[in-house]
Amino acid sequence: MDALYAQRCFNCHGPSGRGDGPIAASLPVQPPDFRDTVQRKSNPQIKRLITAGKAVMPAFEPALSPSEINDMLQMVRFLSREGRDISWWENFDALVAAHCSIPWEVVLGYDEPTEEKQP
Amino acid sequence: MKVSGRSWFQGFGVLFLLIFASAAISAPARGPQQIPVQRRQVKIAIDNFILTDQSGKPFEFKHLNGKVVVAAFAYTTCPDVCPLITAAMRQVQINLSEAEKKRVQLITVTTDPEIDVPKVLAGYAKRYGAELDSWSFLTGDETTLKKVWKNFGVGVKRKARGLVDHTPLTAVVDQRGVLRFAYIGASPDKNLVLNDVRSLLAGR
Asked: How buried is residue A108: exposed, middle or buried, by Cβ count under 10 Å (0-12/13-18/19+)?
């Protein structure tokens, strides 16, 4: 999900969705701050913007699949919350990956390898 | 293997060109506005081609004979250089007088025909407020487009669905179909492009 945002949205919307991406200042229209716009919009409204585009923002339909557009929607919702940014998400992703790679028995403390009893 | 100083120097030159060309083709994921736009004066004859415009009608390049053509290469889902290139094209169009608009044609040629069918291009044109009397958005089959890209010197590399690396080229073609000015970079200065267009209109 974060890779999708980094590839398709980051340049304009920036790391925390405040409209401060690397090309934002060169655009004829300033990208909005998600904390103002996304917070006020419903999911169907945001999805419509992502699929149909607006002004210089690309229309991501039909290039992206419905599930990718859903992922994008979740990401902009996440970034619209105060204090969130893409690097936080990247850390979170790594945390999930790390935990998922550990056998659940070890995480929960069950079935720890029994030490061989000394005779 | 013994390498003479001269051949080492030539080898270094080729390597430098390769690095330069690959840097131009591949727009970086972050900070494309930081690439300074390069303006080059060239003389490359553009062969006739037939593509399809945003309304689904055939568009033949040779019918533009006698007009100055401003050509840009972009695709509609581009997340870095293309919004800047297309915005610059719009600025060029806005700043042309009504008389000049009759003698100048803008074209945007897609670098992603998989996604950019005429209907998608029509939506893109509308979002940028393009005046379609003097600006056409072109697509076509990949074989024809590859010839056009090559003729203009545009490298195109598909990375994923709706994600393409390409040379960020805006070009000015004279009234006889010869590419005269090439601007490589994200935001060509509209005044520079307008000056070059006007110098061709004045027959200079």
From this structure: exposed
Amino acid at B141: D
Considering the entire predicted model, what is its pTM?
0.79
DSSP B142: H
Q: Is B122 on the interface with A (CB under 8 A)?
A: no
pLDDT tens, residue by residue, B105-149: 999 999 999 999 999 999 999 999 999 999 999 999 999 999 999
Which of A20, A26, A61 to mutate against chain B (most B CBs within 10 Å)? A26
CA B53, chain centre distance (Å)? 16
- The secondary structure element, H or E, covering residue B31 is none
Instruction: Give the pLDDT score at B19.
Output: 37
Query: Which tens digit of pLDDT belongs to each residue from B69-118?
Result: 999 999 999 999 999 999 999 999 999 999 999 999 999 999 999 999 99
Distance CA(A109)–CA(B82), nearest Å, equals: 53
Do B47 and B145 meet the contact criterion of CB atoms below 8 Å apart? no
ipTM of the complex: 0.75
**Of A88, A56, A61, residue with least CA distance to A73:** A61
Taking the Cβ of residue B186 and every Cβ of chain A, the question of whether any pair is shorter than 8 Å is answered with yes
